[in-house]
Amino acid sequence: MANKPDPLLSIDELEKKINALGRIINNPSILVGKVVDDARIRRQAFQALRDEKIKQRDNEIEQRNNEIEEDRRKKLAHNRGEEYLDGRRVNLQPTDHDDVFKDQVRNDCLLTKMVVDERSVIGGPKSVLVKDEDGSMTRYRRWNPYTCMLAAAILNGVEYFGITKGATVLYLGVPASAITVSHVSDIVGRDGKVYAVVYLHNSRGSKFDMARMQAFNDMAMIRENIVPIIADAADPTQYRIFVDRQVDVIISDDQRADQSTILSLNAKCYLKRKGNFAMFIKPVVMSVVMPDLDSEEDVYAHELKMLQRLELTPSAGVRLDPYQKCRACVIGRRKYKEEEKEDEDEEDT
User: Fold this and answer.
1) β-strand partners of 316
2) CA count, 13 A, side-chain hemisphere, 96
3) CA separation (Å) from 342 to 310, 313, 346?
């Protein structure tokens, strides 16, 4: 069978195609414009895809550079014996005491902002570099309550007793490590002053005492707000030439049986009228001198009565458990004769 011929176009369809072909012949830009528009759309899509890939690559490069920089800081801190922590992993919570922070990640640890950019603590803890929200780096030092009684007292909720920026502190009976003194130095800052009285049990000084004092003097040379004093706190007149002003706070960590008397003598010589004191009580020391004090409560009651007899008014106290076994901290202020008369008048009325 012969092939069927193609159906013929209708007259209307033929006229439309002829008219369209005539428009293109008369105005070729119609066809060119369509081609150009298609090319422009394809070019814009390609540029958008290229910009997105470039942005993604830049973000990856920036993230990698940040990781390299943080690794560099960690290695540098490790070489210095320090610890580096990102601020997002350290939640600093302020305490009732100025410039003393609590680490919510480690509930048994306090932090103080370093007053100097040095690891100048005798056997002290590592410093912590914390990245703040604005990207700046701040160095803090961990304050261990298991080795420092003042840190244990703050964690157990002792009331604020005057250690603040710019304050002057007289520290009686500096312990061998002197870590607590260095943290007090951080709190009072460069405008404050810490007079640290160290008592050597041997007049000539043992090798341990000499090494201890050498390390303590080295720390005081770096921390200009610490004044080391080698003297017996039982005789405050020995260091009157060094303590050239009245102090805001006296901290007694002497750990001798007559600690209350020593604190009273120093308070009469150096404590301001509205100054405060903090005394750490160790029942083991008192039980050796006074064996009739059977329990810890008896020792604490005896010390409180002794403070009141010596014109010192205890205002609050806390036990240092579980950080420091069988120890307590008492804070208060000196009582003056005018206040005693007022108390007597109130009792009479």
Assistant:
1) 331
2) 11
3) 18, 14, 6
